[in-house]
Structure formats: C-alpha cells, structure tokens
Design brief:
This protein has 237 residues and is α/β, with parallel strands linked by helices. The chain has one domain (2-226): Rossmann fold. The protein has seven helices and six strands, in the order βααβαβαααβαββ. The longest helix is centred in the last third of the chain and has 21 residues, at 151-171.
C-alpha cells in the first residue's frame, strides 16, 4: 500500500483579511505559522516520514512545508513548481471577498470561488499583477502565464505534473508530502477520487490539516482521512 500526504498551507495574511489571493505571493499569518508547526508535530507523532516533497513557488506553501519538515527533523529534497500554484483569480486578486459579494452578488461570487469552469474577470497583460512581470516565471512560455483561471484550467496544469513527476515517484515507493493550495489540491482530489464536475463545487480543503491518501498498487485510493491539528484554531476547516 502506498501513502501520500497533502497539506494546504496554513492561514495567510490575506486569508485572514478575506482577500482573493491567487498567485499573489503573501506571507503566512501567525496563526498559519502555528498551524504548520502543529501539522509537523502531528505527522511526527503519528510516525510519518518522507523521502521527497513537492510544493508550489508561492511562499505560503513553501514556508508551510519548511515549518513542517523542521518540526519533523527532516532534511529531504524539495521539488518546487508553478504547476502547484493556487488558481489564478485574475482581476479579483487583491480584492476583498465581501466587497465582491456586494458588487456582484453572492451567486456570482460563489461561481468565481467554487465552480468548475467559470473564470473570474481576466487581467490585462499591462497589469502589475500579471505573472509575466514576476521574475519567478521568467522561464515560462506566454501561453503558460494565466490572466485568469477556472478550476478546470488549474486542473489542466496540475495533472500533467502529477502524472509525470509525482505519481511515478509514489509508485517507486517514495514517501511523499505535497504542500500546496486550496484549488491545486481540489484539482488533485478531483482526479484521485474521480469527483464529478458538479460535485467538486462542494469540496472544501481545510488549511494546515494533513490529508492522507492510501492507494493500492494501481494508485487507486482505498482510504482517505485528515489528521486533526491540535491546540490551534482552524477557521477554514
């Protein structure tokens, strides 16, 4: 049996302020730091160990991973990829979710947040928020730099990375942890669990709580459970 651990980063400063974040590179809040440390403690307490880690290029995910591994006294290779980034929220990035609700209505806000194939309003390429202006993405093709993304778009960039880089390592017997984001994890879960386009709307990923998948020899899930992080609040559970 193979195991995989996936962790959504701890609370960020923009989670705390109820702001659409997407590819904006923000820090963890103090609560987010505590959640990541607690995740490391519970993983160590439960006897988990890892050979290899995967994460995005956004600091809230990479810092969460670093705090977990430090708490577990692990020094392992880490693969970072933009393909595990959060969904790009286009022109909504940096905007307060309550303001979006007041301006566009709750139904539209929820479509932009949770639907499978609805894209938020796109950025212009001359917008300072356009990823092409960030040195982290200098090596990407223009076609790989989003102006906006639906979950479907996020899935289209996440799954090739899963199929080509992560899944083969699991089948080699590597013990793997992934630190990523709500929507990149939803994209993975949709495919791992064969969740339908309509049903994925209802899937929420709590911050900081390690999600454990157990697979058979064909990488089909036979079990799924969360490890509850203790001693810290989790308003995003």
């Amino acid at each position: 049996m193979y195991k995989l651990v996936i962790v959504r980063h701890g609370e960020s400063i923009w989670n705390k302020e109820n702001i659409f974040t997407g590819w904006t590179d923000v820090e963890l809040s103090q609560l987010g730091i505590e959640q990541a440390i607690e995740a490391g403690k519970i993983l160590k307490e439960k006897g988990f160990s890892f050979d290899l880690a995967f994460t995005s290029v956004l600091k809230r995910a990479t810092d969460t991973l670093d705090l977990i591994l430090k708490e577990m006294d692990l020094d392992i290779p880490i693969e970072r990829s933009w393909r595990l980034n959060e969904r790009h929220y286009g022109a909504l990035q940096g905007m307060n979710k309550e303001d979006i609700k007041n301006q566009y209505g709750e139904e539209m806000r929820q479509k932009w947040r949770r639907s499978y194939d609805t894209q938020p309003p796109a950025l212009d390429k001359d917008d300072q928020r356009y990823p092409g202006k960030d040195p982290k993405y200098a090596e990407l093709k223009e076609s790989e730099l989003p102006l906006t993304e639906s979950l479907k778009d996020t899935e289209a960039r996440v799954m090739p990375y899963w199929n080509d880089e992560i899944a083969p390592k699991i089948l080699e017997g590597k013990k793997i942890i992934i630190s990523a984001h709500g929507n990149s994890i939803r994209a993975l879960a949709k495919n791992i669990e064969s969740i339908g386009d309509e049903e994925i709307v209802d899937l929420e990923i709590p911050v900081g709580a390690p999600l454990v998948y157990e697979f058979d020899q064909n990488l089909k899930p036979v079990n799924k459970y969360y490890l509850d992080i203790k001693n810290v609040s989790n308003p995003y559970a």
